[in-house]
């Protein structure tokens, strides 16, 4: 069935945000008196949401809710100073966004308050987005079906008419759960072999290849 709605994951798929996130994490760790982590380790954790990212890089496991909120707030203060330093659209993305004549949206686990200024910074905030959904838009985030269903409802399409472009496990698992296609990108932050094993198609090495597979 023809794709009527293309949904893009944000970090690693539509936009390369890793350098700013990596820098923010290591600035935070430095401030805490902890050793910096490798780019590869931090990059592999991007896409699962802020709490999981911080949990994966912060060594203390037995933190109560007050301590966790404090850590999140301190990290966010750093990241919000860094998030517009060097984000860039991935190869071929702008041409695709300007050419695609059907519905399109963003479906991310990143907070909306961070997605929106990056979209504006990149000059694509005024495009005809059917939806821009972040990890804080609903009670549940990817891979839960809820944000997928909300996006399809807003677009007035079925799962069979929807294709998600992504680079992480939440993208593939969520897409498979609701019954829509998921196309993996080679330039993302997670090994594509694992995504293909979970049911993704592709991978594509540039958005220039996307029209041929939709």
What topology does this entry show?
Layout: E1 5-8, E2 15-16, H1 18-31, H2 39-45, H3 50-57, H4 65-82, E3 88-89, H5 93-99, E4 103-107, H6 112-121, E5 131-133, H7 145-155, E6 162-166, H8 169-178, E7 181-185, H9 192-198, E8 201-204, H10 210-213
Parallel strand pairs: 1-4, 1-6, 4-5, 6-7, 7-8
Antiparallel strand pairs: 2-3
Tell me about this structure:
With 214 residues, the protein is of the alpha/beta class. It is 45% helix and 14% strand. It is built from ten helices and eight strands. The chain has helices at residues 18-31, 39-45, 50-57, 65-82, 93-99, 112-121, 145-155, 169-178, 192-198, 210-213, and strands at residues 5-8, 15-16, 88-89, 103-107, 131-133, 162-166, 181-185, 201-204. The strands form two sheets. It has a six-stranded parallel sheet, covered by helices on one side.
Strand portion: 5-15%
The structural class is alpha/beta
Mean pLDDT: 92
Count of separate DSSP helical elements: 10
The first-to-last residue Cα distance is: 9 Å
Number of strands: 8
Strand arrangement within the widest β-sheet reads 5-4-1-6-7-8
Q: Could you give the order of the helices and strands?
A: EEHHHHEHEHEHEHEHEH
Instruction: Work out the radius of gyration.
Output: 17 Å
Task: Indicate the overall shape.
Answer: globular
Short overview:
The chain is an alpha/beta fold and 214 residues long. It contains 10 helices and 8 strands.
């Amino acid at each position: 069935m023809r794709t009527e709605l293309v949904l893009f994951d944000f970090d690693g798929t539509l936009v390369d945000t890793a350098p700013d996130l990596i820098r923010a994490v290591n600035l935070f760790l430095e401030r805490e008196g902890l050793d910096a982590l490798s780019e590869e380790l931090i990059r592999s954790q991007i896409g699962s949401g802020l709490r999981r990212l911080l949990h994966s890089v912060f060594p203390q496991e037995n933190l109560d809710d007050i301590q966790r909120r404090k850590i999140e707030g301190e990290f966010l203060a750093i990241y919000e100073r860094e998030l517009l330093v060097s984000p860039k659209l991935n190869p071929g993305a702008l041409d695709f966004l300007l050419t695609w004549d059907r519905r399109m949206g963003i479906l991310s686990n990143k907070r909306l308050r961070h997605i929106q200024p990056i979209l504006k910074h990149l000059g694509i905030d005024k495009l005809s987005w059917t939806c821009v959904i972040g990890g804080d838009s609903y009670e549940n985030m990817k891979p839960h079906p809820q944000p997928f269903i909300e996006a399809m409802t807003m677009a007035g399409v079925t799962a069979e008419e929807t294709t998600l472009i992504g680079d992480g496990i939440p993208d593939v698992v969520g897409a498979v759960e609701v019954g829509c296609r998921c196309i993996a990108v080679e330039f993302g932050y997670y090994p594509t072999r694992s995504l293909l094993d979970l049911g993704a198609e592709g991978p594509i090495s540039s958005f220039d290849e996307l029209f041929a597979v939709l």
